[in-house]
Amino acid sequence: MGKSVVGYCGLFLTLLLVCVSGFHHGNLPVIPFDEGYTQLFGEDNLVVHRDGHTVHLSLDERTGSGFVSQDLYLHGYFSASIKLPADYTAGVVVAFYMSNGDTYEKNHDEIDFEFLGNIRGKDWRIQTNIYGNGSTALGREERYSLWFDPADDFHRYSILWTDSRIM
C-alpha cells in the first residue's frame, strides 16, 4: 500500500465466543479487554469473562454486538480466536477487521476477514478485503470456501501488518 495507513483494530464479531487478547505470541503484550477495547453496540450481547481477556458475543432478534480498540495502530499483530454459530445464518456476517473509517469516513483504508452467513449443508465462505490509499476502488476482495467447519471449534485468524507487508 502506497501510503502509511493509520487504522484501528476493530473487531466486530456478532456471534459466539471470541478470545481477543489471551493469545501469547512471542513477547507481544497481552492486555485485559477493558483496557484495550470499547463496546460499540449490542448492550447485553457482549459479556466479558472473569479472566478479563475473553468476551462472549451474541446475536438476538434486535442486534448483534461489536467492539473497537481504544488506541490507533500504524502496524501490529492482530488476532482473534473465533467460533461461528452452528445453524442457519444466511444474511449474518461475522467480521474481524481494521479500518480508519472513523477518521476518514468517505476515504478509508480497511483490512478484514468477513465470514459470510451459511445455509446448512453448504460450504462456509470467507471473504478477505484489503483497501488502501483511501479508496475502496483500489483494493482487493477475495472469497474462499473453507475446507473445515468454523462452527465446530475455535480457529485463530490473524493479521500481521508491518511497515512493508500485510500477511
TrEMBL record:
- List the GO biological process terms: carbohydrate metabolic process
| Domain GH16, first and last residues per copy | 23-167
Q: What name does UniProt use for this protein?
A: GH16 domain-containing protein
Which segment of the chain is annotated as a signal peptide? 1-22
UniProt cross-references to Gene3D superfamilies, sorted A to Z? 2.60.120.200
> Which keywords has UniProt assigned to this entry?
Glycosidase, Hydrolase, Signal
Q: Which GO terms describe its molecular function?
A: hydrolase activity, hydrolyzing O-glycosyl compounds
